[in-house]
Structures are given as C-alpha cells and as structure tokens.
Design goal:
Low-confidence stretches: 164-181
Largest sheet: 4 strands, mixed
Mean pLDDT: 87
Shape: globular
Structural class: alpha/beta
Order of helices and strands: EEEEEEHHEHEEEE
Distance between the termini: 67 Å
Number of helices: 3
Radius of gyration: 21 Å
Number of strands: 11
Helix content: 10-25%
C-alpha cells in the first residue's frame, strides 16, 4: 500500500499532517526488495564505520550508492529470493530537479549485475506497519498541499534494460553464407 501525505497549512510552525487514501502500490503484484537509506534530491546519506564502535555520517552520490548496494551480501540474498523490483525507501531521491535516483539506477543498470526496475519517491517518505489479520506495511510520500490526494504519481520508475524480444532482427545472428554445389 502507499498513500500521499501533506501539510494542511504549509506555513504553520507546527504543521498538521493530512493523509490521503491508501491505494495499491505500483509494485503490489510483485515481490519487491526494499533498500533503506536517508537521501535528498542529489545524494544518499549513509554511515561508515570509523573503528570498532564508531561511525560517521557521509553523503554519497547515486553511483557510489549503487556500488554499495551491489556489494551488499544481504541485498544480494534478497534479490536471489525475490523477483520483484528494488524500492528505495529514501526521502526525495526522485524529487523534481534532483539527480540521486537517476544516477543511482543508471549506474546500477549499466555497471552492476542488478537488473531490477527501481522505484524512487518524489517526496519525503514515511513508513508504517500495523497488524490486523496479517501484517500490513504502507509507505507514504509527501506531496505539495495544493495537489494533495490528487497527486497522479508519487514514484519515479527507472526501468531495467530488457533483452530484445525473441524473434526481433536485433537478436538474429549474422547470416551464414553457404556455398552448395
């Protein structure tokens, strides 16, 4: 599930949040893999180890984040067991005018062996999990209050390159010339 959320009064010092209707996420009929990292429109924010007990927050570009994902054994294990897309649970990597999601997915698709579609939020993200008959999780994406629940797209999708369909001329081997007597 996913939903839009926005500030009732964007000028208020303590905003009241409005939550839109829950709807099926674009990847709902797949078995997605989720990657969590803080982000903004241009960079991803991760922590690096600085010793046995310490860490330091750093900002990295999309290509570097793609390399970190590709080298992560836990992500590799998840990708091996799930066929769905990679969903970035990161704030704003696809915010209009930004480059974080595009550079990450471009590098992921062209320089690593990860060939999954990538979904990236166009605004800040909020996740929720609750139990009813089964465990349900949902992700919200912040939108401009002037758009509210009418937002047509909360996600930017970066499609993995697909093989050329079987039978197309691009996949045919070069013609073989035979001299038959």
């Amino acid at each position: 599930m996913h939903y839009a959320f926005w500030k009732e009064d964007p000028e208020a010092k303590k905003p009241t949040w409005v939550f839109g209707r829950r709807r099926a996420a674009p990847w709902a009929d797949t078995d997605p893999v989720y990657a969590h990292a803080h982000a903004d429109a241009r960079t991803f924010h991760v922590s690096i180890k600085t010793g046995r007990w310490g860490s330091k927050p750093v900002q990295i570009d999309g290509a570097t984040y793609a390399e970190l994902l590709a080298a992560n054994k836990h992500l590799a294990q998840a990708l091996d067991t799930r066929a769905g897309p990679l969903v970035l649970l990161s704030c704003s990597p696809a915010r209009p005018g930004g480059s974080a999601a595009a550079s990450m997915s471009g590098h992921l698709h062209s320089r690593t062996n990860i060939d999954r579609d990538v979904y990236a939020a166009k605004g800040d993200v909020m996740t929720q999990t609750w139990r009813s008959r089964e465990e349900v999780s949902s992700v919200g994406v912040e939108v401009d209050s002037s758009v509210g629940d009418a937002a047509d797209s909360l996600w930017e999708v970066h499609r993995a390159p697909r093989d050329t369909p079987a039978g197309s001329d691009d996949q045919l081997p070069p013609p073989t010339v035979r001299n038959e007597l």
